[in-house]
Write a structure and sequence with these properties.
Keywords: ATP-binding, Helicase, Hydrolase, Nucleotide-binding. The strands form eight sheets. Strands 4-3-5-2-6-7-1-12-10-11 form a ten-stranded mixed β-sheet, with helices on both faces. A hairpin with a 6-residue loop joins strand 19 and strand 20. Helix content is 24%, strand content 26%. It is built from 14 helices and 31 strands.
Length: 590
């Protein structure tokens, strides 16, 4: 039996085959929830010449993926304690990562050529994590192992994208050390809805009838504490009104999923709903009872399914047409996973859309989630910065003026990917911020420890400060502030005077001429290049007055190192920016 794939599923399979014909680097497919990842997995497993392992983190996904493979009329093993099966003999094995990592002795076969990881955004970079231990084991047996990840949300909390570059966008999106080296193929949610492969999400922000989660604090790992969540909802009297509102809005709806903030909160919500129409699922619920409630909901014997963070992935009930969010979501990934429960087509019920009622004030944009590196400060936003070298429109955290002009950004290197084809090329070499190698003069990332051009060890900032502090003719200024002024030099010529101050008022100064093109070019290289808050911008002041007027565009260094000249004058030798080390930085003036 051959299952008919949708055109985009066939395209996804084709892109994966093309990728692995040219490389063994891990790749990733990004397909929205409901796009049929299981069918793509099944087709790839069917086409594979060697053995295939398909991993997932929950038994529901293991069972779902195996069922789609079985639809081809093919047999596969299941290795999942939760499903009561530990089989590992057939060509294709569908397993839960927890069961496999605890029984690696069952997988001593060098014949595994393809490892597929569902919900691959859960793959950590930590070597002792479950996924990495399985990967290391299989790679030791077969160094050419192909690894494919599939997910609807290719990002991790506090990390950003889990892959390095995006083939279709010809852009670098994640860190060079990302486990997955490329997003091979992606389908946007908007496209899936427009082509009628998913139903339209209709979001309603219930601002007048909502919980106040604005004062919540996150744990160091970036998550909300369930204890604090519980305290917030327990102190609110709005829950009965919210439940009544859900019931009214769901009068003509067929399947309602409600996501709560804590177990106690879920119990309260379930208690306010009709008992004969409501199921309550928490992490502590025994397996048989959980399965019974889920089956009753899928058969529409129950209308409401209340849960606490346990049905965000691996749950497939196409008739769901209303989702109520009564909790804040720490990340757009969790938000999308929750909404994905209601976007599947349901020809049997004829649903036209999925209504999302948000009673928690979640800020995420479902259609175009803004994913980036961790936000450096609360008042920053994502800004677009064109690369002066290749023209690529980079997305960096930054700040803008009231008119929308970018005044500051935190970008280091251009995200553009320069390639003649998808399988070859390199990241644009332009760096917005960098440190210069003293051996070859080449540019390196500000956090690099060795030069990427000559492999010379780069002297770190702490070493430079320590060396300067040991010299009698050197001065280290812990910079508290910087001032700019138009001044006359000893010959009566107009110059830009830059003064750096420490906390005690001690100062060091520099003077710059901007009269000729050569002088302005030198100023741009030795001053603007490091001091600009938005490096790479086309701001080119032609006079000291213009520099002073544009002071908001400039930043001061963390430390300034000067050496004494002719036993009486101090000449600035180095300025240290973006300092992260053991020496204390100054408290900013003002």
């Amino acid at each position: 039996m051959i299952v008919q794939l949708r055109p985009y599923q066939q395209e996804a399979v084709h892109r994966v085959l093309e990728w692995f014909r040219s490389t063994s680097e891990p790749g990733l497919l990004c397909l929205p929830t409901g796009a049929g990842k299981s069918l793509v997995i099944a087709e790839l497993a069917r086409l594979a010449r060697g053995r295939v392992m398909v991993l997932a983190h929950v038994r529901e996904l293991v069972e779902q993926n195996q069922a789609k493979y079985a639809a081809y009329g093919l047999e596969a093993d299941i290795f999942s304690a939760g499903l009561g099966r530990k089989e590992a003999q057939r060509q294709v094995v569908f397993g839960s990562v927890q069961s496999v990592v605890g029984n690696l002795q069952f997988f001593e076969d060098a014949g595994f050529t393809l490892l597929v990881i569902d919900e691959c955004h859960r793959v950590s970079l930590e070597e002792d994590s479950s996924y990495q231990r399985v990967i290391a084991h299989l790679r030791q047996l077969n160094p050419q192992l192909k690894i494919l990840g599939l997910t609807a949300t290719p990002y991790r909390l506090g990390q950003g994208f889990v892959y390095y570059r995006h083939l279709q966008q010809e852009a670098v999106r994640g860190d060079e050390n990302s486990f997955f080296k490329a997003c091979i193929y992606e389908l946007p949610l908007r496209w899936m809805v427009k082509k009628n492969y998913l139903v339209k999400p209709v979001k309603m922000d219930m601002a007048l009838l909502a919980y106040d989660f604005s004062q919540l604090t996150k744990t160091p790992a970036g998550y909300f504490s369930e204890v604090e969540l519980d305290q917030r909802v327990a102190s609110s009297r709005v829950t009965p009104d919210i439940v009544r509102d859900i019931q009214q809005r769901s009068a003509d709806r067929q399947g309602v999923m409600i996501f709560c903030a804590s177990v106690r909160h879920a119990e309260e919500v379930a208690g306010l709903l009709p008992a004969e129409q409501t199921g309550l699922i928490t992490g502590d619920l025994a397996g048989p009872e959980r399965n019974r409630l889920i089956a009753a909901f899928k058969q529409q014997a129950l209308k409401y399914l209340v849960n606490v963070s346990v049905l965000t992935t691996g749950f497939d009930a196409p008739h769901v047409d209303l989702i109520a969010l009564l909790r804040p979501t720490e990340s757009v990934s969790l938000y999308q996973q929750i909404l994905g429960r209601g976007l599947r087509l349901s020809p049997q019920t004829g649903k036209q859309d999925c209504l999302l009622l948000d009673y928690a004030g979640n800020p995420w944009d479902l259609w175009a989630p803004e994913i980036s590196s961790p936000q450096p400060a609360a008042d920053t936003e994502l800004v677009q910065v064109a690369c002066p070298a290749c023209g690529f429109a980079n997305s960096f955290w930054g700040r803008t003026s009231a008119e929308g002009e970018v005044l500051e950004h935190y970008g280091r290197r251009c995200q553009g990917w320069l390639a003649e084809d998808e399988n070859a090329g390199e990241q644009c070499s332009f760096r917005f911020r960098f440190r210069t190698c003293e051996s070859c003069g080449g540019e390196a990332d500000i956090a690099a420890r060795s030069c990427p051009h000559c492999d010379a060890v780069l002297v770190d900032a702490d070493t430079k400060l320590k060396q300067a502090l040991q010299l009698k003719d050197a001065r280290v200024l812990r910079v508290s502030g910087m001032t700019l002024e138009v001044a006359m030099n000893g010959r009566g010529l107009k110059r830009l005077k830059v003064v750096y101050y420490d906390e005690g008022g001690i100062s060091l100064s520099d003077w710059y001429a901007l009269e000729t093109p050569a002088q302005r070019q030198l100023f741009a290289r030795v001053f603007l290049q490091e001091h600009l808050r938005a490096p790479g911008s086309n701001w080119s002041p032609a006079s000291p007055e213009e520099v002073v007027a544009g002071e908001a565009r400039l930043r001061s260094p963390d430390f300034v190192i000067a050496r004494k000249v002719n036993r009486k004058h101090w000449r600035i030798q180095q300025r240290l920016f973006d300092y992260q080390g053991r020496y204390r930085k100054a408290v900013a003036a003002g």
